[in-house]
Amino acid sequence: MGGKDTKLCLFYVLIIILLGSCASQKYPRIARSVNQILGEETSDKHFTGIFFYDPASKDTIFSKNSNKYFTPASNTKIFTLYTSLKLLPDHIPALKYQFSNDTLRIEGTGDPTALHPHFQDSTLIKFLNGYSNITLYPANFQEDKFGPGWAWEDYDWYYSPERSGLPLYGNVATLYQQDSVRVSPDYFRDSISTFREARNREPDRNQFYYDINAADTVEIPYRTANLTTKGLLEKMLGKEIRIDSGMAPTPKKVLSGMRLDSVLKRMMHLSDNFLAEQLLILSSSTLSDTLSSAKARNHVMDGFLVDLKQPPRWVDGSGLSRYNLFTPESMVYVLNRLYHEVPRERLLHFFPAGGISGTLKEWYPGVQGPYVFAKTGTLGNNHCLSGYLITKSGKTLIFSFMNNHFRLSNGEIKHRMQKVLETMRDSY
């Protein structure tokens, strides 16, 4: 390399360094305060990425490792929220169907609300009750039951139901005690044992175990299968359901179900993994008859988010997978798109409020009301928080705060994060 090329290369390196430090130069007091907080803990022993952005002035207020990739955990649901708002109508598609020759032909859309323990939506059942001859076509679901990189040993825990094309009862069996052990749906009544076992369910079949001494209500994911869906529907409807491999090549009608916003709010506030996964599958139903979360993800990344500077590795809707990789800047980018595309009151309604609701009920309380509206994301040794912060001056900041591979307790990490958030609230 010649002397001129070397000087030119050094010039560009200097420009990059200056640009990277411009936020600190523009807001040096904030940078000093935040860096002091970050230095109080053993932050050199784990990875931290932070990005604070003012959407009004388009200023970067503070940045640290903001273009580096982190495991986001349930912060992934922010991308699922964005996808759902872009692709789904106000009332979610509950079913696709055709009717001819006295037969109703149906296929699922991935709608997670049918007979769900919380929503208890009966739209599907009321509709099917009006027909005598029903044929189910399940072949449009082209996903694995579990997402890539999910922990296989979590199969019997409430937060890890299987994905499916026509979910019923949230794809969980709910066990509880009254005068005896009961289960909903009643279809699984003969599949309950009260023996004390290490697992809640057999790995490969719907044999459930319930500890009668616990006296708790327990939700246990059931094994999904076409015959299980058929049996559940037949039990509820009191009529036979046939299964076939393909619908006729004629237009399909769409049955409208619940309001989208109520499903999105529960997904975000409770960090509901099942809803997140099914919402991506549901979103794909608006693009074609094939149910595939990858189809929805690719559509968003190749279209709405094609100009994202650091494209993520995005493999599921919930963030259960450790294969997911996102940067703080990418999180803020999507949050900024939401901020400008969704009315403020509706947008903040989706996010847990600090000290008030959801996964933030015990953290980040305000003095005269919540100042943080954000989504948490937690896996073992990882904790992230991304969303919106209202400063004392009334300005709104968009932020992403990611912590990976720490050996401290989650509480210690959150205390440090709270100090940073309060500094931003009070200083800007």
Give an overview in words.
One of its GO terms (molecular function) is serine-type carboxypeptidase activity. Belongs to the peptidase S13 family. Keywords: Carboxypeptidase, Hydrolase, Protease. One of its GO terms (biological process) is proteolysis. This protein has 428 residues and is of the alpha+beta class. It is 32% helix and 20% strand. Helix 3 runs antiparallel to helix 12, helix 4 (77-87) packs antiparallel against helix 7 and helix 7 (260-269) runs antiparallel to helix 8. Residues 4-22 have low confidence and may be disordered.
Mind sketching the topology for me?
Blueprint: H1 3-20, H2 22-26, H3 28-40, E1 47-54, E2 59-64, H4 77-87, E3 91-100, E4 103-107, H5 123-128, E5 134-136, E6 172-177, E7 181-184, E8 192-193, E9 208-209, E10 218-221, H6 226-237, E11 241-243, E12 253-259, H7 260-269, H8 273-284, H9 293-302, H10 328-341, H11 344-350, E13 372-379, E14 382-390, E15 396-404, H12 410-427
Parallel strand pairs: 4-5, 5-11, 8-9
Antiparallel strand pairs: 1-2, 1-15, 3-4, 3-12, 6-7, 6-10, 13-14, 14-15
Helix pairs in contact: 3-12, 4-7, 4-8, 7-8, 8-9
InterPro entries: Beta-lactam/transpept-like, Peptidase_S13
Family: Belongs to the peptidase S13 family.
Keywords: Carboxypeptidase, Hydrolase, Protease
